[in-house]
Amino acid sequence: MTKKYIAIYTDFGDTCDGFARVLGTHDTKEAAMKDMNEDIAIWKKENKQPLTINKGDCILYGDEQYGCQWQVLEVEVK
To answer: In which domain, by residue range, is 25 found?
Structure first.
């Protein structure tokens, strides 16, 4: 089996549906983390929410009322 790393994000707020979206699928965790961190940088420029959780591969700014959560998930593909 081959491992892939998927960068996802979930927006929370009045105009959001609260469903996760895929940023990208990568061959390495480092590439997925880079993709996630680039998206976070863009989001932070447009939104003024505090950092709530930072577990490295799971980051939340704001809360589940208004904010965004990013994650890198490891999956095995046949």
So the answer is: 2-77
21: its two tokens: 């979206």
DSSP collapsed to 3 states, the chain: CEEEEEEEEEEECCCCCCCEEEEEEECCHHHHHHHHHHHHHHHHHHCCCCEEEECCCEEEEECCCCEEEEEEEEEEEC
Give the Cα-Cα-Cα angle 18, 21, 25 (nearest 5 degrees).
155
Number of structural domains in the chain:
1
Q: Could you report the per-residue pLDDT of 7-29, keeping only the tens digit for each?
A: 999 998 888 888 999 999 999 99
